[in-house]
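Chain A, query sequence.
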Amino acid sequence: MNLLAAAHLSHRAARHMVAGGRGGRIVNIGSRGAFRGEPAHPAYGATKAAVHALGQSLALALAPHGIAVASVAPGFFATERVAHRLSGAEGEAIRAQSPFGRVAEPEEIAEAVLWLASPAATWASGTVMDLNGASYLRT
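Chain A, predicted structure.
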């Protein structure tokens, strides 16, 4: 679902943007798990890596149409879906993954997505933006 949803939506958006002739922006959400691995959920890590590869391929294919494509690779962030994991010892361990000692708030991820979706970020096309509070550093 992670890859297929992003691929289908990107395809539909790109078709619409190309037909309109005005360019545009596509931003997909992957995960830091694409780079650090997810031993308990290997399919999750693999599909998120595929989302990032899809975005980079689309960035190359769609640039001639004025369409910029980028991806975000967030680390753990607080949502209703994972709130139960942020209490007790598991929550402490999750927060300790970042030297900031916390997880991201959804607004922090949203701000980056808004920027990537703006005309100011055209030159960031093809990038995978790591938003993980230094909880994982790619080398």
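DSSP finds five helices and three strands in the chain. The chain has a mean pLDDT of 95.
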